[in-house]
Amino acid sequence: MEPDVCSSKGCRAPATWQLLWNNPKLHTADRRKVWLACDEHRESLSGFLGARQFLKDVVPHAAGSAADS
């Protein structure tokens, strides 16, 4: 089984963070989509989602725990 990797384009580093988000125009308020991030890309991915007001939470990632993607 391969490790979960960062969602940043072209990055193959192991994921250490889960960025939980939703688009309120498309998803119900309780729905959470998940992007995975390595330490290097946590801030840039958070900034992208935050600028659109999609980011809901950032939590540590345990391998195999991404609930939705």
UniProtKB/TrEMBL annotation:
It comes from the Bacteria. This is Acetone carboxylase. It comes from Nocardioides plantarum.
